[in-house]
What we know:
Elements: H1 12-22, E1 25-30, H2 31-39, H3 59-69, E2 72-75, H4 78-85, H5 89-105, E3 127-132, E4 150-152, E5 158-163, H6 183-203
Helix pairs in contact: 4-5
Amino acid sequence: MRWANETNAFSPTPGGNTVFLAKKAFNVLDQPTVDEFISKGSSIKPWRGIAVGTPMPDLAQQLAAGEATGYVYKATTIDELAKKTGWNPDIAKAQIERYNKIVEMQNDTDYYKDAAYLKYKITTAPFYAIELRPRCLGSFGGFVLSGDYEILKDDGFPIPGLFAAGDVACGWFGRTYPNIDGLTSFHNTTSGYVAANSAINYLN
C-alpha cells in the first residue's frame, strides 16, 4: 500500500519514478473529498491544469469515464476496493487507518509529507482508487544541435540538410528538466518552427 510521499505525483520526474517502481500506484479518495473537489476545488495543489480552489464540476463524470475505461475503481467498502485493485484487504484497511491518524496528527512520520498536504482523510463510502500510470513527458540526450537545429557530427560541424525538432532534439534540455507546465509543448513548437525555417533556408 502506502510506500511513498504522495506529493511526488505533482512532479513529473519523482512521480514517474514512483509509479514505475511501484508497478501499480493509486490515489485513493472518499466521497466527501470528491464532493469538496466538485464544489470548492482542492485546497492543495491538484492535478496539472487546475488551480488551487477551482471547482471541478465535471469530476463525477470524469471518474465515471475512468471507471468505464478501467483506471478508476469505485467501491462501497475497502474490502471491495481491495478486491478490484488487487490489494491485500487487511493491509489496505490498516494503511488507510494509519493514514487517517497521520492526517489527524498533522505529522507524517512515515514519509514526511508536508503538513500542508495532510488535508483529506479516507472515511466515507463510496471510495475511489485512481490508478497512476507512467506517461512519456520528454526525453534527454538526443542529438547535439546548432542554434538552427542542424544535427551536428562528433567533430561539431553540421550534417548538411539534416535538422531535428521535438523529442529527438531534446539535447536542448541538457541534464535537467525544469518543472514548468507546458515546457515540452513549448519546445516542440519552437524547435519545429526554427528547424522548418532552417530547412527552407537550406533548400533556397
